[in-house]
């Protein structure tokens, strides 16, 4: 699981901003939102322009150079903060993977090339590299001087982690394999003016075709009815049909022609839910932009029941309820800080408190 993340000089974050998921409180309710002492499920709130999207994209920067499952061609546009264009962007990740605690830090220049890289496992430095030197501290990796010199002169921005993974045999429980698998299974997506995703998959799908070709029409129909109360009478699909068709008053109408914007968003959600069993960490940006507030609640329950770590961003304070999460799992971005509601007040928060009402009343304005 991701336990802590920090980034400096990235887009709107000229100063360091920290997301700390490693310090949950001792609330007895909604214990499933916490796993192994780490916040597993959280919702991030904040005003327009506060940095919710930039934070999510920064978290997924690691997918860019440790995984082949990357898709966002315009990512390096406006990469470095406008206030410090000549400096690198610094990333810090803390992971808890099985019994191992990993600290992976690196820096990139404005072109996205690695300039520094460092890995610690359980407090022990494994390697570090910058423009002046390369140190490999772990005795488990035997490299001759010529290879080390080549790494030091590395001009193609190859990650040391990827080099070690391709050069040495490891068992499946090795910390480098666990890290690679975790990063390769991270997923970011959103559905606003256009649909975008990072990680987990390498192929873009036509959603109708995916549902039909995988014999999921019935399951998709049940999903829509259960989650949103909508009933669609889908026509049986034929081998040549690539569109979902609905029966209406004796006629066949394309589903995409009659589905609302919110229902289209649910179609995309259905697609990714079918992949969550393979995901390690999921961030859905503005996940409920087109949802009714009660539908947002039902979607949250569904997502939080999955086994992977799930973070969402939203403006919908209806979701600020102890029936869904806990005060330490409702996070707010403000003035380059991310704080849980539990750290934004001296008031003792209990299950019976209406934290949305408290939030709107200014209780957490500090």
Question: What can you tell me about this protein's structure?
Answer:
The protein has 366 residues and is of the alpha+beta class. The protein has two domains: 2-201 and 275-360, P-loop containing nucleotide triphosphate hydrolases (Rossmann fold, 3-Layer(aba) Sandwich); 210-261, no CATH class. Helix content is 26%, strand content 25%. It contains eleven helices and 18 strands. The protein has helices at 52-59, 61-66, 145-152, 160-167, 175-184, 207-213, 217-228, 255-258, 261-273, 293-304, 355-360; strands at residues 2-8, 17-20, 34-35, 38-39, 41-45, 89-97, 100-108, 114-121, 124-129, 134-136, 186-191, 195-198, 245-248, 251-254, 281-284, 309-313, 330-334, 337-340. It starts with a strand and ends in a 6-residue tail after the last helix.
Any idea of the CATH class of the largest domain?
A: Alpha Beta
Overall pLDDT metric: 88
Low-confidence stretches: none
Query: What is the number of E strands?
Result: 18
- Biggest sheet, spatial arrangement of strands: 2-1-6-7-8-9-10
The name of the CATH topology of the largest domain is Rossmann fold
User: How would you classify the quaternary structure?
Assistant: single chain
Q: Kindly state the percentage of residues in helix.
A: 25-40%
Helix segment tally: 11
Number of domains: 2
How can the largest sheet be summarized? 7 strands, antiparallel
In the CATH hierarchy, the architecture of the largest domain is 3-Layer(aba) Sandwich
The CA-CA distance between the termini, in Å, is 29 Å
Structural class by helix and strand composition: alpha+beta
- Apparent shape: globular
Rg (C-alpha, Å): 22 Å
Q: In what range is the share of β-strand residues? A: 15-25%
Element order: H for helix, E for strand: EEEEEHHEEEEEHHHEEHHEEHHEHEEEH
Tell me the CATH superfamily of the largest domain: P-loop containing nucleotide triphosphate hydrolases
């Amino acid at each position: 699981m991701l336990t802590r993340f920090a980034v400096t000089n990235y887009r709107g974050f000229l100063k360091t901003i920290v997301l700390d998921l490693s310090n949950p409180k001792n609330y007895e309710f909604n214990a499933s939102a916490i796993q192994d002492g780490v916040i597993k499920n959280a919702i991030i709130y904040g005003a327009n322009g506060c940095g919710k999207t930039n934070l999510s994209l920064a978290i997924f920067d690691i997918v860019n150079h440790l995984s082949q499952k990357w898709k966002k061609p315009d990512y390096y546009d406006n990469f470095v903060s406008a206030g410090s264009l000549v400096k690198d962007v610094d990333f810090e990740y803390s992971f808890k993977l099985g019994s191992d605690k990993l600290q992976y830090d690196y820096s990139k220049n404005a072109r996205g090339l690695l300039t520094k890289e460092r890995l610690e496992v359980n407090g022990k430095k494994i390697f570090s590299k910058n423009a002046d030197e390369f140190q490999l501290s772990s005795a488990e990796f035997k490299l001759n001087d010529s290879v080390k010199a080549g790494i030091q002169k590395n001009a193609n921005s190859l990650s040391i982690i990827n080099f070690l993974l391709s050069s040495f045999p490891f068992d499946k429980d090795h910390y480098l394999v666990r890290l690679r698998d975790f990063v390769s299974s991270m997923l970011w997506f959103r559905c606003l003016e256009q649909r975008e995703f990072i990680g987990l998959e390498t192929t873009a799908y036509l959603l109708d075709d995916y549902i039909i070709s995988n014999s999921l029409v019935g399951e998709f129909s049940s999903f829509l009815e259960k989650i949103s109360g909508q009933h669609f009478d889908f026509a049986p699909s034929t081998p040549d049909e690539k569109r979902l068709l609905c029966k209406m008053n004796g006629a066949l109408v394309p589903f995409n022609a009659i589905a609302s914007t919110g229902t289209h968003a649910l179609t995309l959600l259905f697609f990714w839910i079918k992949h969550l069993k393979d995901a390690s960490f999921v961030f859905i940006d503005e996940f409920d932009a087109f949802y009714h507030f009660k539908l947002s609640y039902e979607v949250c329950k569904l997502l939080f029941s999955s086994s992977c770590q799930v973070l969402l961003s939203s403006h919908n304070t209806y979701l600020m309820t102890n029936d869904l999460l806990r005060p330490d799992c409702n996070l707010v971005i403000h003035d380059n800080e991310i704080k849980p509601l539990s750290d934004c007040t001296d008031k003792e928060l209990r299950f019976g408190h209406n934290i949305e009402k408290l939030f709107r009343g200014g209780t957490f304005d500090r």
